[in-house]
Amino acid sequence: MMTDKLIDKIRKTGAPIVVGLDPMMKFVPEHIKRLAFEAKGETLEGAAEAIWLYNKEIIDKTYDLIPAVKPQIAMYEQFGIAGLAAFKKTVDYCKEKDLIVIGDVKRGDIGSTSEAYAAAHLGRVNVGSSVCAGFDEDFATVNPYLGSDGIQPFINICKEEKKGIFILVKTSNSSSGEFQDRLVKDKDTERPLYEIVGEKVAEWGEQLVGENGYSSVGAVVGATYPEQGRVLRRLMPKTFILVPGYGAQGGKGKDLIHFFDDNRLGAIINSSRGIIAAYQNEKYEKFGALNFADASRQAVIDMIEDIDQAFAGVER
């Protein structure tokens, strides 16, 4: 199971951390842009080359510290076909570095459309007598709003390919409560919608439980909602939780411990711009734009220390 591989990588690195490779042109240092534009022009191809060069340097400086990366596909799609090529190039390079790749694609549809999304990101397609992989991530994020019809095609592919998904349950954004916190009548009581979704994720996950007791059907729960994280950890005991919202969105190490089990497993914490754009943060300005990837490496080290201190200072 892919979650078993993820757990093994977390144990080896001691870092329950995923770096969000969410490049924006405003993050890319001028010297990188200059190289890319000289080669490809001030075009979509030039922009895609810039984000690839930016990604590669960050990966080279951090891959030995972390178990996983999470590229957000929208940051690449904005540059059209060239951007998608950079996305694929990034995925392949991360795999060469033995990193787990979580494709943050947030797909959600039904029937043959859901099957096609699952094949594109996690599976393979028949092309004549050949069988080819598309983007070939290890996990993908999925929106559950369309129900089981939208989720089961992904689970079927995960069974075939030994891969995984993370399903949106309680997201880190400030307006998530507009729908996710709505009270829904359930039997004789009213509960927030995110609890009902969480229980459904746990049910779906029974199909893919690995040797470590965790399913490859995971959940996304924001670091910005630690109390909801505590509730959902209890409701989803076999569910691995992807936790966005650390750092730039306000989540701190002390907010995270309730997402984990007593063995410090069961969750992986994402930081995106807090790591990849660390050099723009006053704390890391000493590195400068030329050494932006060294700033990213230090930000990873500091994040690991923050999480370690949170565990050391709290009784479970």
Fold and architecture overview:
The chain has 316 residues and is of the alpha/beta class. The protein has one domain: Alpha-Beta Barrel (TIM Barrel), CATH 3.20.20. Helices cover 44% and strands 18% of the residues. It has helices at 2-13, 30-40, 44-62, 74-77, 80-96, 111-121, 148-161, 177-180, 193-205, 226-235, 273-276, 292-312, and strands at residues 17-19, 68-69, 100-107, 124-127, 130-133, 139-142, 164-170, 183-186, 189-192, 215-221, 239-243, 267-271. Strands 1-2-3-6-7-10-11-12 form an eight-stranded parallel barrel, surrounded by seven helices. Helix 2 (30-40) packs across helix 3 (44-62), helix 3 (44-62) runs parallel beside helix 5 and helix 3 (44-62) crosses helix 12 (292-312). It is globular, with a radius of gyration of 19 Å. The chain starts with a helix and ends with a helix. The relative contact order is 0.14.
In brief:
The chain is of the alpha/beta class and 316 residues long.
Shape annotation? globular
Structural class: alpha/beta
Give average pLDDT, whole number: 94
- Specify the biggest β-sheet: 8 strands, parallel, barrel
CATH level-1 class: Alpha Beta
> Uncertain spans, ≥5 residues at pLDDT below 50?
none
The gyration radius over C-alpha positions equals: 19 Å
- State the helix count: 12
Strand order across the biggest sheet?
Answer: 1-2-3-6-7-10-11-12
Would you report the number of β strands?
Answer: 12
Beta-strand percentage range: 15-25%
Q: Name the CATH homologous superfamily.
A: Aldolase class I
Terminal residue distance:
28 Å
One letter per element, helices H and strands E, the order comes to HEHHEHHEHEEEHEHEEHEHEEHH
Oligomeric state, counting identical vs distinct chains: single chain
The assigned CATH architecture is Alpha-Beta Barrel
CATH topology: TIM Barrel
The proportion of residues forming helix, as a percent range, comes to: 40-55%
Number of domains: 1
